[in-house]
Every structure is written in structure tokens, then in C-alpha cells.
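Figure S4 source data
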Amino acid sequence: MSLLKLTIATTDYDHFRDFRLGQVKAEGIDLNWLNLGHHECFARFTANREFDLSELSFAKFCTQVTRKDSDIIGLPVICSRLFRFSSFYVNKKSGIKTAKDLIGKKIGSPEWAHSAAVYMRGWLHNDMGVKLKDVHWYQAGANSPGRAEKVEISLPEDVKLTRVADKSLSEMLASGEIDCAIIARPPTCFLEGHPDIVRLFPDYLEMEEDYFAKTKVWPIMHIIAMKKSIVEQYPWVARNMFNAFQESKKRSLERLLDPAVSRYPIPWLTTYARKMRDMFNGDTFPYGIEENRATWELMSLYTYQQGIAHRPFTPEEIFPKGIMTSVII
């Protein structure tokens, strides 16, 4: 039987590498795997559907999968996931010491449908009493000007968002034009040691551990999206792809936990990895629906509140029917 030829585009993650290099295979599928930067994956898949499957920002996925007659569906495979309390950067001259101090301030993010910012705006709005309408929001490129929104959004009527095309968030934060930036990676002004730019939450690690213990939410940044037409024509593709991703991740984590074969030359990394394994009940990076239900559901709430998703959704709606069917013997 001939193999089904598909093209996929992702960043080079270690948990995908055995699959990408052919050491793990998806039954019945011949993959043409493009190793691209994630912003390129997002832009090209969102604009032109150039690939059959692609890494995609979870926030941008939420917009597209909730469109009427959406042409995409997801795999419950996580490319990237990170806790984000470390992502608040403030100018000390703004006098911001706590989350509540952000009320009435100017806060920037690279895009409105930016997963890191979506989680933290949602946390502020729902948990900290800093409502979306209480802030003047700004959108600009993180360290270079010119970044644009990649998906349609429908802002709540009482939310104020200013788009800046000729400056970066790093520039505006350093100059005091904005008070805070929520950015996935540290802005240049912080990395270069600007004396006024600090993290709002320097104790972010303890905050994130406490947040996970209380909520069981392990924020998902990027997932795998695929053309819905593939699943409609070949229903078996989704589960076979999921199985291969799962096996590739399993091998990656096994290496990380074994100092004799770990790819990363960092002392005590395996000791820390074993600690994280125990904290996360045996799987530090779970795939699947039920394993991540709290996170899928929270992102549904946040993206709908923020005018990114067209409607609320359940995890079962955004993934192929029956993809998690048990096959235990």
C-alpha cells in the first residue's frame, strides 16, 4: 500500500526530533517535515494553508477553529508550553509593585492574539481584579517595529487597544511610553541591563509552582493544527500522527532523565528533571485531552472573553472525534 504524503512545518523541538528524523514513524504516512521558525509556521499556515499540518499559536488556533465552517482541526499535541508570570516587565518609574498597580496603566504585547499575553490578561481579569477595561493596551513588535496581528479579533466594546507600527515594545518600555510589557521572551532593554526595567514578579518560579498546584493549569502556547479535509478523507491519520508524536516525546523525556544519554550538557539537569517528573505525576509534558482539560477549558474562556475566539468551545470540539479512544488490551 502506498503511503499518504503530507507536509508538516514546526520548530526543531527535541520532543519532536525522533519523529522528524524518521526514528519514529506514523503508520501509513510519508512526512515531508519542514523545520521553520514558529513565526514563519504561524504566518504561512494562517495566511495560505501552505502545509497540511503546522505548529500554530494556541491563541491563533482558537480564532480559526471557532470560525463558522472552520477548515482546520487540532491534534492534542503540545509543541510549546510555559508558565508566564515571568513575562511581565515593568518600568520602575511607573511605581508598579503588584498586579493591582496595573490598573490605569499602559501595557503592551506583541499581538492581541499572543498566547502568553492571553493567559496573563485572563489571569489579571479573572483572578486579580484587573479587568480588561481597566488598562490601556498597546500592540507593537517586541524588539522591532512592524509586527501585525495575524488573525481577526473582535475586541470587547469597553477595551482600548492602540497599535503602534513605528516603535517596538522594548523602546516604549525603556522610554516610559508604556508602563509594562507582557512578552514571551525578555525584551532587549531588559537583556541589555536597562536600569529602570525589571520583572514585576521576580519570584515567578514560586508563583508558578503554586499556581499549578492550585489550578492544574500548565499553559499551552503552541499546538499542532491540521487541515480538516485530511481527517475527513482519512480518519485514521489523526490518531496515527498522535501516536508517533507521543512516542517521540517519550523518548525525549527518557533521555532527559538519564544522565548517560542526555543531549544537554548542563550539571544536575537530570536531577531537576526527575523532581519535575514527580511534581507532574510522572509526565512533565502531557499530551492528550483529559490530561490537559483544565488548560484547554481555561483558554476557551480567556480567548472568548478577549474577543479572540468567535465562541466558547470544549476540547472535544477542536480535536478529531475519537482521537483519544482507548486501545489498552
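Figure S5 source data
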Amino acid sequence: MWSPPPVTETPGHGHMQILITGVKGRLGSQLLTKLSVDGHTVSGFDIDTTDITNLDSVTKSFASAQPELVLHCAALTAVDYCAEHPDDALRVNGLGTQNIAIACQRHGAALLYISTNEVFNGQGNRPYLEYDLPAPINSYGYSKWVGEQIVRDLLPHFYLVRTSWLFAHGGNNFIQTILRLAGEGRALRVVTNEVSTPTYTEDLVGAIARLITTGRYGIYHLVNEGYASRYAFAQYALEQAGYDPALVKPITLAEYQRASRPPEYSVLRNFAAAQIGITLRPWQAAVDAFLAAEPALKNHD
């Protein structure tokens, strides 16, 4: 049976040379802004310039950046696509991560790998702790778990950060979809038996920015506090945006036909980071802050 590595403490880091993969994504772009403001020298690449599934391509980008720390955000995250194309998921999220880890080896760089609640099977009855044993039930979760194992196998210095149900400004996340459909007068049917923790990307970015200055390598669950079903999450967002929460109707996962099967109860508990003072606010407060910054999403009738 695999035994987890100990959390290793090293002196805190000040200014660092940081490279971000997937830098044009919502998480990567916010990390670029935040860490630059914090005084780090930050660069990044995305699929238009660097193919993480090609080691030569990755090697060239590392040679230019000369990173001390790499934040690996690049991933294939379309879970239904991953279910339909499992080899693609494994190639990008698994072997792509191997290429990043090999490049980190060659440059003596630490790696922060972004992983997911979907590495767990969702069959437990309590929130998952950092060293609970993963057992993914879908192709996306499996590919991210493969990435986790590669990072642990190849590198001595890493942060493995799991998070869940991200919502961010821009794009088309769960909150935006629910509020858009409500504004269009569309029927809303949302599952009651898929439960996890909604997490605001801005809060995650702040937590990562603090974590990388500690030098305390290990596995972390960085999520907003608390948990909710998809149904309760939708109801709260509707109510806070000025819509009738009764607009959303409850259904079960069995009634929601999709290619990927999500874990039912994949709540992550932030235990390890909380021990060093890194916590995120309750998810309800995070939704409130998100909506305050997105007045166009609110019901103005």
C-alpha cells in the first residue's frame, strides 16, 4: 500500500521565478496577476505556444523561463469529453504532467499541481482528508489521479492542491449558467445527490499565493468552507441574485443523463493548510462576493 510522503517544511520563500502552465485559463490568468503583484517574476504558457504532451515543446519553454517553481494549471477539464475520450484525458492530464515533472527535475524546480475532488469515489460519509486514498470513478478523475502519482513519484518538492466546483469571473461556470437560464425563464433542473464544496477562484488564488511562500510541501485541500448539493448551490445563487429559489427543481443523478459519472459525495476538508493558518471563507460568503462583482447577473425586474 502506498504511504504518503511527509509534509516537508523548508524556509519561507520571498521573490521567486515562477512559471504557470495554462496561463490563459481563468485560474492561471488570475495567478499570473496576483503573483506578479506580490513581487514574483512570473511567466506562463498555454496551448497556443507550448504543447504539454510534447516534452521537447515543454523543454523549450522551461529553458526560456528558468523557473524555481511551476504552477501546473493546464489540464483537460471537460469531464464529459474525458469520459468519451479517455485516452485524450490520460495523455493530457497524465502524461502531460509527466513532461512537466521531468522538466522540473532537470531545472531543480518545485511543482504545484492542481488536482480535483473527482479523484475520490464519493461513497464516503464524511469530508475527505488530504491523505485519504483516491479511487476515481470517471476518466477525468482517473487522469488527474495519474497526474498526482507522477508528481509524487518524480519530484521531491511539490504541492499537490485539490479543489472543487470552481466558479470564476468570465467564462461560463455553474452560477452564470443557472442565472442566465433563470433570466431567460428557462426550466431549471438540478441534482440533489451530488455534493461538494463550491470554491471561488479568487479565494483559491489567494490561498495558493500564501501556500507557496511557506515552503511546506505536501498535499492540500484548498476549498471554501462548508459544502452543498448542486441543488442547494443553485438555490442560494438564485436567491442572492434576486430570483425565486423555487425556480430550480430537484432531480437525482440518475435522472440527469451525461457521459461522465461524478462522485456523489466528494466534499474536501481543508485540514493541512488550516494547521498553518490558510483557510478560505464559507462558500456562501464567496458567492456573495462573486455576485457583488457581477451586478449584470442579478435580477433587475
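The chain has a mean pLDDT of 93. The chain has nine helices and 13 strands.
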